[in-house]
Design brief:
With about 190 residues, the chain is mainly α. It has a domain of about 130 residues. The protein contains 10 helices and 3 strands; from the N terminus they run H-H-H-H-H-H-H-E-E-H-H-H-E. Helix 3 packs across helix 5.
Amino acid sequence: MHEKYAPSREAFEVVYMHCLIVCEIAEQLMGDAGSDLDRDLVRAGCLLHDIGVYRLYGPGGTFDHKRYVRHGVLGHELLQDEGFPEVICRFCSCHTGMGITRDDVERQGLPVPAGDYVAETGEERLVMYADKFHSKTDPPTFVAADSYAVHVRRFGSDKVRTFKAMREHFGEPALKPFADRYGHALV
């Protein structure tokens, strides 16, 4: 799927590598707190959660940063069009931030259809949580739990509570070995 939709080799390398890393983080976290989760479903969710990012590349490889929040719904639509079941499509639309609610959409004027894009299942929550520990920035970085806890404050106390609850439930990943292996900074 990544090779099919990536508009360039560079886009493929950034997005697919991120998805692989998120999968590795999720697998590490499942070893600690995920014995009741469907591991294959988590893996599929990790590998496909950012597929919609490819739809934000325009002609000539320009990337639409202003509409980045749309990548989840774009990925959901893409997978739906490919015939994937809803349980897989939801990993795209329900992993952004600590979840996007209808109220968030309306209050912030977000460029997505009004609705709730919130992780509901344990598998969806783990994919969303694991995603917070790696960023596709240029250059890519690993994000420590304490750093993300500071970052999420700007989105409201409900998002802070959600992250805190996930941190308590899933634990914190050991990111230093990942940072060393991939050569990405740990912030």
